[in-house]
Amino acid sequence: MVTAFDHYCLSDQTSDAETPDATRARRFANAPLASIVAMVGRGERRVEGKVRSITVVIPTHNRPKLLAEAVRSVLRSPLIESPSQVVIVDNDGLDQSAKALADAFGTRYARVACAGPSGTRNAGLALAPTEFVTFLDDDDLWMPGAHEAQLEALTADPTAAFAYGQWQAASWDLSERMSPSGAPPSGVDTTPEHFFHRYHHISTVLFRRDALAEVGGFDESLIRYEDLDILQRVNARHPAVAVEAVTLICRQRPPGRQRCDERWHAGYLMGHRPPKGLRLRVGPTAVLKDIIRTRGHIAGGFLNDADACGKACFRHDTLVCLSRAFFLSPPAMLRRPSFWRLLLGSLKLRPKLDRPSR
Fold first, then answer.
1. What are phi and psi of 56, to 5 degrees?
2. Statement: residue 350 has pLDDT above 70
3. Given the DSSP bridges, would you call strands 132-135 and 108-112 parallel, antiparallel or unpaired?
4. β-strands 240-252, 141-142 pairing
5. CB of 99 closer than 8 Å to CB of 90
6. SS3 of the chain: helix, strand, coil, percent, to 5
């Protein structure tokens, strides 16, 4: 069965006539859980030789279809010679769908009760017996060749505690992709301050397990910044290595009122205030710059949501998104011509066309 991930990976390698049938991909994406489990193939091709010592921890919560694609993307890697190298951690799911998928794929499985992102990852880390470990969100996908460059870098430099690469944002259905981002050129001197000012997706990072254990794993008191916190605490003790390799496909929700509501109600404004430990490590000036930058970035996202609502002629939703963008970063919005264009354009929309864009 061809998944959306198959279609995504093959789109650059085949002609239009050779592209896998998109209808079959949609059929898999919309299939019930029982059908997905039946489709799972246990006979994945493996490279000959020694099993590479890497474990992949995948936290999940009530997203079995996305989880299935995430696991399949990992099992395709030559670094994963046994499904037991994958650990699925179910964060208090409503049913046994994650367990059913773990049984079907033959992966390890753990269930935790409302542990949050840090506690869920720590539970998977406890089940990782290998020298190296990495983490993957259940809505993201490994690129072909993922973490091979990171593993080579760590093997070449025994003093490095982790190696990190690049990631590529894509639309939710994987039909559109953006330029890779994340890691600077290899050889850049990395410090804890670097990881505060520049975001690196945790799923592009390959850790030495001992380095994570040395700092006590993820800080379970944090619901935001937990990935940045662990990078800084580990990097304060050991060096890191950057590699120019795209490791991850990161799904992005389409802009609109639904995305705006999710981010707003998830506490994106208050949740992106750095915790005390990070503030002490980098100093007040760096924290202030980060808060201003982060608020401007989130406000820019709300502005994109407003643009999508405006194109759909939803005046109320456009104004809601614009008001949230202005609340987060008034100076940035006042300087942006697109803000004024959307504001004036929304006032011209006819009320009869106004309805929620969800």
1. -115, 120
2. no
3. unpaired
4. antiparallel
5. yes
6. 50, 15, 35
Note the pLDDT of residue 283. 64
Higher pLDDT, 231 or 10: 231
Between these two residues, 236 and 134, which has the higher pLDDT value?
134
The residues near 351 (Cβ < 8 Å, ≥ 6 apart) are 315
Name which residue leads in pLDDT, 308 or 280. 308
E strand segments, 49-190 = 54-60, 86-91, 108-112, 132-135, 141-142, 162-171
Residue 197, pLDDT > 80, answer no
* DSSP code of residue 290: H
Which pair of structure tokens corresponds to residue 136?
């993957």
- The yes-or-no verdict on residue 115 having pLDDT over 50 is yes
Listed in sequence order, the residues at least 6 apart from 295 whose beta carbon sits closer than 8 Å to its beta carbon are 269, 272, 328, 329, 332
Strand order in the sheet with 108-112: 108-112, 86-91, 54-60, 132-135, 205-208, 162-171, 240-252, 141-142
Element (H, E) at 1: none
| Domain boundaries, given as residue ranges, for the chain | 46-252, 257-353
**DSSP code, position 77:** S
The residues, ordered by sequence, that sit 6+ positions from 276 with a Cβ below 8 Å of its Cβ are none
List, in sequence order, every residue forming a beta bridge with 163; answer none if it has no partner. 206, 241
> Pairing state of beta strands 205-208 and 86-91?
unpaired
Minimum mean pLDDT among 40-54, 59-73, 93-107: which range? 40-54
pLDDT in tens, 8-24: 444 444 333 333 333 33
Single-letter residue type at 126: A
Buried (b) or exposed (e) across 41-58, using 16+ Cβ within 10 A? eeebeeeeeeebebbbbb
Rounded Cα–Cα distance for residues 305 and 314 (Å): 11
pLDDT (mean) for 193-221: 84
- Residues linked to residue 110 through DSSP beta bridges, in sequence order: 89
N-term to C-term CA, the chain: 31
As assigned by CATH, the class of the 46-252 domain is alpha beta
Task: Identify which of 151, 137, 171 has the alpha carbon closest to the alpha carbon of residue 248.
Answer: 137
The CB density around residue 244, as the number of other CB atoms within 10 Å, is 14
In whole angstroms, what is the distance from residue 256 CA to residue 308 CA? 5
